[in-house]
Amino acid sequence: MGEYFGDVLSRAMSRRDVLRGAFYGTAVLAVGSCGGSCAEEPLSFRTIYPNNEDRITLPEGYQHNVVIRWGDPLDNGPALDWNRIRQSGPTAQDVDRQKSCFGYNCDFVGYFQTPDNKHLLVVNHEYCNPEIMFPIPFLTNNAPTPGRPTQEESQLMLEAHGLSVVEIRRKTDGSWEYVKGSSYNRRITGSTKCEITGPAREHRLMKTYYDPNGESVFGTLNNCAAGKTPWGTVLTCEENFHSYFGGNRANITGDDAQLISSIHQRYGVPGSFAPYYGFMNLTDQQNRRRFLIESVNGEPKEAFRFGWVVEIDPMNPQSTPKKRTALGRFKHEAATYAIANDGRVVIYMGDDERFEYVYKFITKGRYNPADSSANMDLLDEGELYVAKFNDDLTGQWILIAKCERNAQGQYTITPNPNLPEPFRSDPVLCYINTRGAADSLGATKMDRPEDIEWNPVTKSAWVALTNNERRGASNQPGTDRANPRANNVMGHILEIMENGGDPAATSFRWQIPVLCGDPNVADQNNKLVIYGQNASSQVPAISAPDNFVIDRLGNIWIATDGNPSSSRLRKNDGVYVLNPFRRELKMFLSGVPGCEICGPEFSNDWKTFFCAIQHPGETDTNEPNSRWPYGDNASTPRPSVIAVWRTDGREIFA
Fold it and tell me: Cα(113)–Cα(603) distance, rounded to whole angstroms?
């Protein structure tokens, strides 16, 4: 285990010095790096403020509409009967319909334009809310009621996960609608066959009773944030995969039992939410339970086949999703690209859990903009790094391992020589147990690193650190310069400035542009601080930054996940915009009760802003606290994707 930087700092400087240096030490560097293309004009819209209304709130001059909702059919068949499912539960026919209907809890939203000038959205479906989807009472005393979920409920939830690819079209009034029955429309679910590629393919820990060669897996799950590649594919991220696996690690037997159990423990397998999904109780044609980690009747190694970045080709509905194991295995929240100075592709990634790490992957090959097909396997070879943030506002990318493939398809893996056993003798473990490798190399433990986006205007990477109320608690890591707040309930935003502005650099400088909070509270630990200055009382409060999108002027659009918490703002989540050149923050959109805002995205002409309204109405009870998008006449809120546009037809940020 690496030394915590909180311990380093306690010897080196006072907390006051830490805060001052993190804010002021390099703040001017970002402003000076925009090369004359900065967003020098102030944000044009009038800010809104956090609220608790059961409607979407926007600034004056903007409108929105719902593009697609859970259960809408992607084929020409009927919609999923979500209202009846809520009243009486799903049937086998409902399970079958869910395979062709828009999934639940939409997260990432990616916009694409096809070669024939069609418009596509690729949307992740992260998880399910059975207490809202299915008949009351699903919960009793904060746990599933005995006998729940039923087999059909579990099967429907399995098919409601994954992704949707859907064609959309703009109407004359600026709104958008989806195209039912489009040939591009596609559902990828928890049962869709995916190919395993890269260095972990065919490793013994990847082989299961139904896939003895370790080459393929059924499904992709807990698809949270994602990224787009310059060659037109999506890198969808498997985040909290542990939630679906049940059983007892003590009941793992046979070869590698101790190794399997120790890695599962590091990743939180089995998960406490497994009873809510019931996947561990589903049996297959071999009368086995692949989500049960026990050796008898289960599959201890199935969990190793989740936690990856999965590449999807939205242009080809017949293509097979590929789990790219060279990018490492952890609870992925982001996989966003930048092109290095020499043409290699860099993928930035966050591991969304308290005290986890920031990673990046650099391809061996170079991006070929003239031939998309030449790029399709770029992500199977390269170098995997983890970040260390130093107390002097510099940092290093520490190599975990390098993998290369020969003409026969065999891999040579070169692990970091400082790694202990068993990583040296079995270097594939660098990819299967990436967290363990990062632990050994002394990487910096961060406050839930989520989305990481490369800003081509500032030529820097922006990191969302959502929150970490355990920072500084008893028997937990203390504060450090990159994570300066104990009990960090509000979260913060960090900027990485790679040396020479090159994403492939192995050293960098960094700063904290935003410590999130409320400008009108007395507690400095929860106060909004922008570039080292307490924000004025007129700046909207913000907490729990989650996902980013960067507009063409370099402004950072920030979607939040956690404003409603009683320890934070007690207001609906929303979308905020930071102009890093004027150091200006405004709120652009407020969601509805219980929801988080996900997947901020722009159309290619910058005139439409898309985002997902995930889990509207989510509470700790069987009764949702929102009726959106229908109002009081509906019993079941539905996760949806919305489009926002200016009424004057100009670019969204004009």
Answer: 9
Count of CB atoms within 10 A of residue 173's CB?
9
Query: Which pLDDT belongs to residue 633?
Result: 66
- In the prediction, which pLDDT does 32 show? 39
The CA-based diameter of the chain, rounded to the nearest angstrom, is 67
Across-strand partners of 361?
347, 384
* Superfamily covering domain 5-70+105-126+161-190+222-239+307-375+383-646: TolB, C-terminal domain (2.120.10.30)
Which is it for the CA torsion 154, 155, 160, 162, positive or negative?
A: positive
pLDDT in tens, 364-405: 999 999 999 999 999 999 999 999 999 999 999 999 999 999
- The total of other beta-carbon atoms located within 10 Å of residue 88's CB is 11
Cα(612)–Cα(70) distance, integer angstroms: 11
Indicate the range of 37-41, 178-182, 280-284, 345-349 predicted with least confidence: 37-41
For residue 477, the model assigns a pLDDT of 97
Which pTM was predicted?
0.94
Contact 622, 636 (CB under 8 A): no
Instruction: Fill in the DSSP letter of residue 55.
Output: S
Give the pairing type, strands 193-197 and 322-324. Answer: parallel
Between CA 524 and CA 520 the distance in angstroms is: 10
DSSP symbol at 48: B
Amino acid identity for residue 265 in this structure: Q
Domain boundaries, the chain: 5-70+105-126+161-190+222-239+307-375+383-646
Q: How far apart are CA 500 and CA 553, in angstroms?
A: 21
Q: Note the pLDDT tens digit of each residue in 512-549.
A: 999 999 999 999 999 999 999 999 999 999 999 999 99
Q: What percent of the chain has pLDDT over 90?
A: 91
CA distance to 198, 223, 234, 307, per residue, from 240 (Å): 22, 8, 19, 8
* Amino acid letter, 626: S
Q: What is the CA radius of gyration of the chain?
A: 23
The angle formed by the CA atoms of residues 105, 491 and 142, to the nearest 5 degrees, is 50
